[in-house]
Design brief:
Blueprint (H helix, E strand, L loop, with lengths): L29 H25 L21 E2 L5 H5 L6 H14 L16 H7 L3 E2 L4 H8 L2
């Protein structure tokens, strides 16, 4: 008997045989898969319980009481404040704050709060807004203005 010539679909086979992988089978055997499934289920349960704890589910809401806003007394000493402190006052910016300091350096210390009106850029309205926040010296006169508010 003569062997048939090899066909187009025939391939050479080696002498070693390897088992063909089973269809749908993972690299873990059945018992390992069950252990992994149990561990995943436990982790999922733990995450769910932890989420419920963190969400405060079933707890009463807390009512927050708000305090009434308070007006703070902010006094600026005309003779010792720098331009940054002046710029904190309403209507006074960086430019006007620097102008006040330059005026003080050029003309000497202020002797009355009204003298600030001589600084270019401080008109009637600006003076009315900032006058309650100005003081001269931190001595008793300045402390009296603070207590009088």
């Amino acid at each position: 008997m003569t062997a048939a010539p090899p066909g187009p679909h025939d391939t050479e086979t080696s002498n070693t045989t390897e088992p063909a992988p089973a269809a749908g089978r993972l690299w873990l055997n059945a018992s390992d898969q069950q252990i992994v499934a149990v561990i995943c289920a436990l982790l999922l349960a733990w995450v769910g319980i932890r989420q419920i704890e963190l969400s405060q589910w079933g707890r009463e809401e807390i009512e927050i009481r708000h305090q009434q806003p308070r007006e703070l007394a902010y006094l600026v000493d005309l003779n010792s404040a720098n331009w940054l402190e002046f710029s904190l006052l309403e209507g006074i910016g960086e430019v006007l704050g620097k102008r006040i300091v330059a005026y003080r350096d050029e003309h000497g210390p202020f002797t009355a709060i009204e003298q600030i009106r001589q600084v270019r850029g401080i008109g009637e309205k600006t003076y009315a807004r900032i006058a309650p926040h100005l003081t001269i010296g931190s001595g008793p006169a300045g402390a009296e203005r603070l207590r009088g508010r």
